[in-house]
Write a structure and sequence with these properties.
This protein is α/β, with parallel strands linked by helices and 598 residues long. The protein folds into four domains: 123 residues, no CATH class; 93 residues, NAD(P)-binding Rossmann-like Domain (Rossmann fold, 3-Layer(aba) Sandwich); 208 residues, 3-Layer(aba) Sandwich (UDP-N-acetylmuramoyl-L-alanine:D-glutamate ligase), CATH 3.40.1190; 143 residues, Protein-Tyrosine Phosphatase, Chain A. 38% of the residues lie in helices and 21% in strands. The protein has 18 helices and 26 strands. It is globular. 42% of the residues are buried.
Length: 598
């Protein structure tokens, strides 16, 4: 009899505990959310970054909670999804056992249908919110051969998604990386190949896909879900703690440096950079840690979204390296370019962090910025100051001063501007509490990135490849080479689209003064806005523009003639540097090969 009584008693208590568990897990969060929503009808939410994407997403904050939404209000079901119910699990059983004896059994019986109904509602809402990532199986990339797009494709492939891709052409090293990981791709735009193994669940549309692209036309006609590159970054990479590295120059280096630093410290970040690192790390990875580290590009997000990519990344921590007018095709005035970064810093939450270079301080109004602000640079008065810089062909060394302490840094990277980038990364990592020894070790072991003063040959002539696609970046790169090399410098320069606009012409004055010879190659064909009355600068015009402040500029439109000129004219001890965002049609490889045989 006692055993039966004990069994019934335990059964009764467990039954009531489970009922109260359901009540606290589902009913109380619902009442909490509804109550908060009602209260907040009388106050306006804080909103930043209104509608940078085609779906009208924005960031809003209610009472300390912060997230990204895809409607024009913060709906109850969004709050339920964000707040969740898991925070109650720690103490719910204790309350259930205690209160289960207080409420009459008849009342509990009446509550069962209500509890069941709300349980189903909440489970449906939760499943719907989480379902999308689980049902996505096949992702196709239009324009997969770009450095950033291929990196994203490989990261998703490693997470178990079926990934395919297309592009107008495939060249090493990107084609090699795609082949090695097993991602199928094809040249050209062929809808029938895109759906050969089933219709994709999602198509990532690169900027190469113009309105006449057959694959783009097909997905629009068939209503196949599609997203731009930054929208996919937002969906798969952005974490609760979101570090964004932004600025006219230095953002790729800083993003890669921080990603290497976090990985070396065992923090398993998600990260996305637009370069190929020389260390043993991928250009993108979806990690299991709480941090994401993203390159905040200010260029337009997509052909349907002209806002900057970085507006998609909901930064909580921002490293801002510089603000110097660029991309005149997107930002027709210096003010419009500066305004984009101004909006970015005001997106930061009150518990966030802004790490601000002295090179950007005069361009950014920090009044009204709610986040903590940390400054760095070469001058006195910065919280993190770098000094005592020495550099050689083997790299740089310098000291970082902070709060009365000095930290000595050595790096194989070239350029005084690298001291600025490294100091910014040190400041951010140090400010969030990463131990100093981990920071110094990771920064010292960082080898650099492809196409960032990447040394392609050393003898008899040193050959560099660099992505300096603007006169400002070219000036900085050439100044670095002049400071460590005594031979002649031959600069082959191809600007990006924005720096082929007439608005960019003033920036070319004296930009190539540290080069002995400047060569303009055949320029890559770019898309032209038919409504724009001003034509982009062609090779002859660009040569004339640079020639106003440089005495030795020539336009060589034939690739073979350009290669022959460089090989014949250069002597041991000279430097050849290719500057531009395009691949130079295999000219770098031909120059290095022929120099070896010289």
């Amino acid at each position: 009899m006692k055993d039966t009584f004990d069994f019934l008693l335990v059964k009764s208590v467990v039954r009531k505990a489970l009922l109260w568990y359901l009540l606290l897990v589902f009913i109380l969060p619902f009442l909490f959310v509804v109550g908060r929503s009602i209260v907040n009808q009388f106050q306006e939410p804080t909103i930043w970054g209104k509608g940078p994407s085609k779906d009208g997403s924005f960031i809003c904050e209610y009472g300390g909670f912060r997230s990204i939404y895809h409607e024009d209000y913060c709906s109850v079901d969004e709050w339920i999804h964000d707040i969740g119910a898991t925070y109650l699990l720690f103490y719910v059983f204790f309350i259930g056992f205690v209160l289960g004896e207080i409420i009459p059994s008849d009342l509990l019986t009446l509550l069962i249908p209500t509890l069941f109904t709300y349980s189903v509602i909440f489970l449906v809402i939760y499943i719907k919110k989480r379902k999308r990532k689980n049902v996505l199986k096949h992702i196709h990339f239009i324009g997969i051969c770009g450095v950033a797009m291929s990196a994203m494709a490989i990261a998703l492939h490693k997470k178990g998604y079926k990934v395919t891709g297309s592009d107008k052409g495939f060249y090493p090293p990107i084609s090699t990386h795609l082949k090695n990981v097993g991602i199928p791709y094809y040249a050209g735009w062929h809808p029938e190949k895109m759906i050969e193994h089933g219709v994709p669940d999602l198509v990532v549309v690169g900027n190469v896909a113009g309105s006449s692209n057959p694959e783009w036309q097909y997905i629009e006609k068939q209503n196949i879900p599609y997203k731009s590159y930054p929208e996919v970054v937002k969906e798969f990479f952005v974490k609760e703690k979101s570090i964004v590295c932004a600025g006219t120059y230095g953002k790729s280096t800083s993003t890669t440096l921080l990603s290497w630093l976090f990985k070396s410290s065992g923090m398993e970040p998600s990260y996305m950079v637009g370069v190929l690192p020389l260390n043993e790390m991928d250009a993108a990875e979806i990690g299991d840690g709480e941090w994401s580290i993203l390159e905040g590009d200010e260029y337009k997000a997509s052909r349907w979204d002209t806002k900057a990519k970085f507006f998609h990344y909901a930064p909580t921590h921002l490293l801002l390296t510089s603000v110097v007018w660029d991309h005149a095709d997107v930002y027709p005035t210096e003010a419009s370019y500066r305004d984009a970064f101004q909006s970015l810093v005001h997106m930061l939450p009150h518990d966030g962090l802004l790490v601000l270079s002295e090179q950007a301080q005069s361009q950014i109004d920090t009044s009204g910025v709610r986040a903590k602000i940390v400054t760095y640079g070469k001058k006195d008065g910065n919280e993190y100051q770098y000094t005592n810089i020495t550099q050689s062909k083997d790299g740089i060394s310098f000291d970082i001063l902070h709060d009365g302490k000095s930290y000595h840094m050595t790096s194989p990277l070239l350029g005084e501007y690298m001291a600025d980038n490294i100091t910014g990364c040190f400041a951010l990592a140090h400010s969030i509490g990463i131990p100093e020894k981990h920071i110094l070790s990771a920064l010292h072991s960082f080898s650099g990135m492809k196409r960032r003063l990447e040394k392609r040959a050393t003898s008899p002539v040193t050959v560099f490849d660099d992505i300096a696609h603007s006169p400002t970046k070219a000036r900085s790169t050439l100044a670095t080479l002049r400071s460590v090399y005594t031979g002649r410098i031959f600069a082959v320069f191809e600007p990006n689209t924005g720096n082929r606009q007439k608005e960019a012409i003033p920036a070319y004055a004296d930009a190539f003064r540290d080069a002995d010879t400047v060569i303009i190659p055949r320029l890559t064909k770019i898309k032209v806005d038919p409504s724009d009355p001003d034509e982009a600068l062609d090779g002859d015009t660009l040569t004339a523009v640079i020639g106003k402040t440089h005495s030795n500029v020539r336009y060589i439109s034939d690739d073979e003639q350009l290669v022959t000129f460089l090989v014949q004219e250069s002597k041991p001890g000279d430097v050849i540097v290719f500057l531009g965002s395009h691949g130079f049609r295999n000219m770098i490889e031909r120059v290095t090969d022929q120099l070896k045989q010289k």
